[in-house]
Amino acid sequence: MDTVKIGIVGIGAISGIYLENITNTFKEIEIIGVCDLIRERAEKAVEKYQIPKLYEDMYELFNDPEVDIVLNLTRPYEHYKVTLEALKAGKHVYSEKPLAASLKEGKELMALSRARGLMLGGAPDTFLGAGIQTCRKLIEDGYIGKPLGAAGFMICHGHESWHPDPEFYYTYGGGPMFDMGPYYLTALVNLLGNVSDVFAMTGTNYPQRVITSKEHFNEIINVDVPTHYVGTMQFESGAIGTLFTTFDVHYDQQARLEIYGTEGTLFVPDPNGFGGPVRLFRPEHGSIQEIPLVFDYKENSRALGLADMAKAFRTGRKARANADMTYHVLEIMEGFAESGKEKKLISIESRFETTPAMQRAGICGIIE
User: Fold this and answer.
1) Which one, 29, 62, 318, 340, has the greatest CB density within 10 A?
2) What is the DSSP letter of 96?
């Protein structure tokens, strides 16, 4: 099979699942080469996954005519620079979330990709998994009636107790909204449509953090971003939603996402995952019922969005995890941040079109 060739920039913590899935699950894409500022990381990936090329730097990767799509797995504040240079070199780009660390950066990337006729998109792709795709079908088929609203909760006390390099979570491009918000907001806009206005209150309750993970044990992190968000969204459909994200709270669970309708309530699975459970409450049932998943990709299928972009690259259709969607999510997040700072309602200017639901292709790893 003739595959779409992927060049990866950044072999950090998140790269493992991408390397595994591109190599062993998705049959229409292939890693042609990798690079990382820490060369040893790239060398280990080349050896473990039998990758043909190890580049000295990202510019060598961008100049390789064999690379069809650049996979940007760098840290959030580095996304803009890496994606910008890849687009300048004429490469299509799929980036880890968020699209960029600010709306200004995102606008520049969007303009450049359109001017060059290049595909741009990125994570999260969890909304393409069996769980949220099943939720989408339930809503479209009327199981909760007309959607009225939603509520999402991402509650934890930060990443410094377990992440090997947690500092970037508390600097430009970090914080709970820009780190975890993309999962919740991508799920919400795919289930409820575009957001027109937002309002939020934000705070930073711990100006410094002490790292307790072993790699940087007892080092101090200065917190430069809000770590506590309570936001409200007005959807164009008329639905009203709330999103609470925090790195400041001790809690016994992390994720909750609910969609409320005129005839029932849908309990959406953790949007940071691909599977279930999907649960539905309708008053005539008297209890919550678990709904079978009716789509593929229940396990951790990161790179699903990349595989879908590769199929779009081949067929000329629009990728599902496209830049219009990731930019809309970025504008909502920046709107929350601006609203929390200025104490005012923020209008969201961007819009995106929901792409078709996933379809079974008959063979796992082949995108229809």
Assistant:
1) 29
2) P
77 and 151, same domain (yes or no): no
Instruction: List CB contacts of 294: < 8 A, sequence separation 6 or more.
Output: 130, 133, 134, 137
Query: 95, 122, 149: which is the final residue of a domain?
Result: 122
Dist CA 179 CA 48 (whole Å): 29
Cα 187 to Cα 152: distance, rounded to the nearest angstrom = 10
pLDDT tens for each residue of 43-85: 999 999 999 999 999 999 999 999 999 999 999 999 999 999 9
Same domain, 132 and 274: yes
Together in a domain, 148 and 270: yes
Quick check: 310 and 67 in contact, CB under 8 A? no
SS3 249: coil
Tell which of 266, 291, 316 closes a domain: 291
Q: What is the pLDDT of residues 224-247, one digit of tens each?
A: 999 999 999 999 999 999 999 999
User: Does 220 share its domain with 142?
Assistant: yes
Burial class of 163 by CB neighbour count within 10 A (0 to 12, 13 to 18, 19+): middle
End-to-end distance of the chain based on CA atoms, in angstroms?
Answer: 15
Residue 5 phi, psi (nearest 5): -90, 130
Assigned domain for 273 exists = yes
As a whole number of angstroms, the longest Cα–Cα distance in the chain is 63
Give Cα 271 to chain centroid, integer Å.
9
- The contacts of residue 185 (CB under 8 Å, 6+ apart) are 243, 329, 332, 333
Bridge-partner residues for 352, per DSSP?
Answer: none
Q: Do 132 and 114 lie in a common domain?
A: no
Per the structure, the complete domain to which residue 172 belongs is given by 126-291
Q: What span, in angstroms and rounded, lies between the C-alpha atoms of 44 and 303? A: 20
Overall pTM > 0.90: yes
Neighbour-count burial of 335, counting CB atoms closer than 10 A to its CB (0-12 exposed, 13-18 middle, 19+ buried): buried
103 touches 338 (CB < 8 A): no
* Rounded Cα–Cα distance for residues 35 and 53 (Å): 9
Tokens 């994200």, residue located? 245
Total domain count, the chain: 2
**Which residues lie below 8 Å from residue 286, measured CB to CB, with a gap of 6+?**
none
Alpha-carbon separation of residue 206 from 177, 198, 265 (angstroms): 16, 25, 35
